[in-house]
Automatic annotation (TrEMBL):
Nucleotide-binding as UniProt keyword: yes
SUPFAM superfamilies: P-loop containing nucleoside triphosphate hydrolases
Entries under Gene3D superfamilies matching the protein: P-loop containing nucleotide triphosphate hydrolases
GO molecular function: ATP binding; ATP hydrolysis activity
Name assigned to this protein: Urea transport system ATP-binding protein
UniProt superkingdom: Bacteria
Domain ABC transporter, chain residue ranges per copy: 38-278
Length: 278
């Protein structure tokens, strides 16, 4: 890929492009002593009078793995849009830890301040190797141009090696990302988010299109992140949800219909009626 093409690719890739901008830092203010890393309280979002989120309350504990399920149109994507600053709610509050008001922060500040988001479709740089993709994801620390040409330092090399191991991609480090399987591309993209060391990861349908074996590997990956990163997984694949879920939140018509462990949620008649019974 020529320099020009690489630069163009960056401008088409919102998250990495964001990282070119001066780094926002509110890690020092992040206070999770009360438990949650994310507080969504009484949040309402209306589109032309239709309530996509309706007085939504959602709390995610620091380091927890949470699954969010719900029928189409329940408000799952809108919830992630609100947390990441893409959509501003009509009412309510959203806090990262107990002190950082995310509604006062820009999308860029939120992304750089420790909230990573992965959209459904993997977006990696196909002609760069797996390892280079991980190095590029660190661009925020030093600017894209510098990161394309700089020699990785010891600490960064170690971080890349850790993430390669964590994502099961150590054997693919030198392969162009475009040659990876669909599942491997998804892991690489999660790895790229991990390079920025997010405290909270929001993942939209991460196993869509994966083989059964890839799903099993993904379940292991998510479980290994537990404790060090809070991971919120929005997923329709119930078998996958069952395989990883501790706490499940069911959204319906923009608010929480049920919450609890998988067995509790699965046997809740309201949930069966609106979602699982489909
Ligand atoms: N920008 C918008 N303008 C108007 N309506 C919108 C907009 N964004 C979302 N909606 C509506 O808000 C509702 C909630 O949408 P959302 O995408 O959050 O649901 P979801 O739970 O993510 O659904 P899915 O499982 O299909 O992805 C839907 O009825 C959708 O049509």
């Amino acid at each position: 890929m020529s320099l020009l093409e690489t630069a163009k690719a960056f401008s088409e890739r919102d998250r990495v492009f964001d990282a070119v901008l001066p780094k926002a830092d509110f890690h020092g203010d992040l206070d999770t002593r009360h438990g949650p890393v994310l507080y969504v309280e009484d949040v309402t979002v209306s589109f032309d009078g239709f309530r996509a989120l309706d007085a939504l309350n959602l709390y995610i504990d620091d380091g927890e793995l949470r699954c969010i399920i719900g029928p189409n149109g329940a408000g799952k994507t809108t919830m992630m849009d609100v947390v990441t600053g893409k959509t501003r709610p009509d009412t309510g509050s959203v806090y990262f830890g107990s002190r950082i008001d995310l509604l006062k922060r820009s999308e860029t500040e939120i992304a750089q301040g420790g909230v990573g988001r992965k959209f459904q479709k993997p977006t990696v740089f196909p002609r760069h190797t797996t390892e280079e993709n991980l190095q590029l994801a660190r661009a925020g620390d030093k600017g894209v141009w510098a990161s394309l040409f700089h020699r990785p330092e010891e600490a960064e090399r170690a971080r890349v090696a850790d993430v390669l191991t964590l994502t099961g991609l150590a054997g693919e480090a030198g392969r162009p990302a475009g040659a990876l399987s669909h599942g491997q591309k998804q892991w690489l993209e999660i790895g790229m988010l991990l390079m920025q060391n997010p405290r909270l990861l929001l993942l939209d349908e991460p196993v869509a299109g994966m083989t059964g074996q890839e799903m099993e590997r993904t379940a292991e990956l998510f479980q290994s992140l537990e404790g060090s990163h809070a991971v919120v997984v929005v997923e329709h694949d119930m078998e996958f949800v069952r395989s990883i879920a501790r706490e499940v939140t069911v959204l319906h018509q923009g608010s929480v219909l049920a919450e609890g462990d998988m067995a509790t949620v699965q046997n809740d008649p309201k949930v069966v009626e609106v979602y699982l019974g489909e």
